[in-house]
Specification:
Helices cover 13% and strands 33% of the residues. The chain has 118 residues and is mostly beta strands. The chain is globular. Keywords: Protein transport, Transport. It comes from Sciurus vulgaris (Eurasian red squirrel).
């Protein structure tokens, strides 16, 4: 079994540990500059890391939820489920000098893949 690996994101600005077998979708098709997209050939699951524009009218946990639900709406998601929203300790972030807060949201969206019906 292939071990998980540390993978650079957005030209090396930061990185993520990806599961064994994850495939960089940009090797298969065009991916927008504000996204990093990975898929797994066995589980048929996708991981999308997306850089989003600041929305000054929402902050904190509400901002994480706002962006997740907005992306789901743009993608035409049939279902959007937030599983957890947790603050990140700024001391552990490489970008700590550039942000006042950071959040990680885990959730699921039921979205049709490219060229498929929902």
């Amino acid at each position: 079994m292939e071990p998980s690996r540390n993978y650079p994101l957005f030209g090396g600005a930061f990185s993520s540990i990806l599961p064994a077998g994850a495939i960089d979708v940009s090797d298969l098709r065009p991916v927008p500059d504000n996204q990093e997209v990975f898929c797994h050939p066995v589980t048929d699951q996708s991981l999308i890391v997306e850089l989003l524009e600041l929305q000054a009218h929402v902050r904190g946990e509400a901002a994480a939820r706002y962006h997740f639900e907005d992306v789901g709406g743009v993608q035409g998601a049939r279902a959007v489920q937030v599983e957890s929203v947790q603050p990140l300790n700024l001391e552990n972030l490489a970008l700590r000098g550039y942000c006042q807060e950071a959040w990680v949201l885990s959730g699921k969206q039921q979205v049709a893949k490219e060229n498929q019906q929902p």
